[in-house]
Amino acid sequence: MELNNKELKNITNLARLDLEEKKEEKFFSDIACVVGYFEDLKNVDVSDVNPVTGGTYEINVFRNDNDMVRVETKEGAIIRSFPDNKEGLLKTPHIFDK
């Protein structure tokens, strides 16, 4: 893909770049090099390269989700440890001032 002056001016406009003529020429040259680099990448033979979808071949060392850790508690002991039980709700001392 060959970039023309009109397309490059549009790029500078979209990027809101206000370039002097000397810097504009340098910018155009640099952009042309970058586009040329991508053109070269299009021609690289990757037919023998395996596709990579992740960055590692490590395996998960965590436990399975179905291996639940359960702590058995006695409901009555917990309810008795509260200072007051009102209408099935556990009442604690006030934390905030009234």
From TrEMBL:
Organism in which the protein naturally occurs: Candidatus Harrisonbacteria bacterium RIFCSPLOWO2_01_FULL_40_28
Biological process annotations from GO: regulation of translational fidelity
Gene3D superfamilies: Glu-tRNAGln amidotransferase C subunit, N-terminal domain
Entry-linked InterPro entries: Asp/Glu-ADT_sf_sub_c, GatC
Matches recorded under Pfam families: GatC (PF02686)
Protein name in the entry: Uncharacterized protein
